[in-house]
């Protein structure tokens, strides 16, 4: 149990740091269609900045874009993500919630907001947000991953965590050795409890 807990804590830290990719940007097509080509390039620069941990540069670009597009859900969500990475959880929550008010289909924003809620100790809200992410897109692996962490480490529900880790692995292309190890550990723990 102790090794599983240590591994989970380490990966929880990494999860907050490494979930944005250019293939899974927090974005909406409507927003991109209304942006000029120049602004689209700037937005991509901001996303690359987030990915490369150049948060200050990315934030400057997003601030400039928000002045022109105050209801751009992807820009708002990414600004929230930057605040989450800086551990400014209240600001992250505000921007992610606003992005979801504008576009409730942003599954990545739901996932990141759930992580923010979890870090704030709002476990019920985190679970609800992850369930909503799964309803929005049942093939979004990261929601199952974070639901597994929430249930294993914070809600003491190892059987539910195990189920969510398995779903995550089923959806994760290329697998995830670390989570596969967690599954093995949880299976042994649950077996020993019987």
What's this entry about, in short?
With 194 residues, the chain is mainly alpha-helical. Helices cover 77% and strands 0% of the residues. It contains eleven helices and no strands.
Walkthrough of the structure:
With 194 residues, the chain is mainly alpha-helical. It has one domain: Serine Threonine Protein Phosphatase 5, Tetratricopeptide repeat (Alpha Horseshoe), CATH 1.25.40. Helix content is 77%, strand content 0%. The protein contains eleven helices and no strands. The longest helix has 17 residues, at 177-193. The radius of gyration is 17 Å and the shape is elongated. The relative contact order is 0.11.
Please describe the topology of this protein:
Layout: H1 2-17, H2 29-34, H3 37-51, H4 55-68, H5 73-85, H6 89-102, H7 107-119, H8 123-136, H9 141-154, H10 158-171, H11 177-193
Helix pairs in contact: 1-9, 3-4, 4-5, 5-6, 6-7, 7-8, 7-9, 8-9, 9-10, 10-11
CATH architecture: Alpha Horseshoe
Q: Judging from the principal axes of the Cα atoms, what is the shape?
A: elongated
Count of beta strands = 0
Specify the CATH homologous superfamily: Tetratricopeptide repeat domain
Largest sheet, if any?
none
Radius of gyration: 17 Å
Which descriptors apply to this entry?
0% strand, Serine Threonine Protein Phosphatase 5, Tetratricopeptide repeat, 194 residues, mainly alpha
């Amino acid at each position: 149990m102790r090794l599983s807990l240590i591994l989970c804590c380490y990966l929880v830290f990494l999860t907050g740091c490494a979930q944005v990719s250019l293939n899974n940007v927090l974005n909406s097509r409507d927003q991109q269609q209304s942006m000029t080509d120049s602004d689209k390039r700037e937005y991509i620069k901001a996303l690359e900045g987030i990915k490369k941990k150049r948060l200050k540069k990315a934030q400057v670009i997003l601030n400039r874009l928000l002045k022109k597009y105050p209801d751009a859900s992807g820009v708002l969500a990414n600004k929230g993500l930057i605040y989450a990475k800086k551990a400014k959880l209240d600001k992250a929550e505000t921007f992610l919630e606003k992005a979801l008010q504008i576009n409730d289909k942003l599954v990545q924003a739901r996932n990141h907001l759930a992580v923010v809620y979890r870090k704030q100790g709002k476990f019920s809200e985190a679970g609800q947000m992850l369930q909503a992410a799964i309803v929005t897109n049942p093939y979004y692996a990261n929601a199952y991953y974070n639901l597994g962490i929430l249930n294993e480490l914070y809600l003491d529900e190892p059987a539910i965590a195990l189920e969510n880790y398995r779903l995550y692995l089923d959806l994760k292309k290329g697998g995830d050795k670390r989570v596969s190890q967690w599954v093995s550990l949880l299976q042994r723990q649950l077996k020993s409890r019987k």
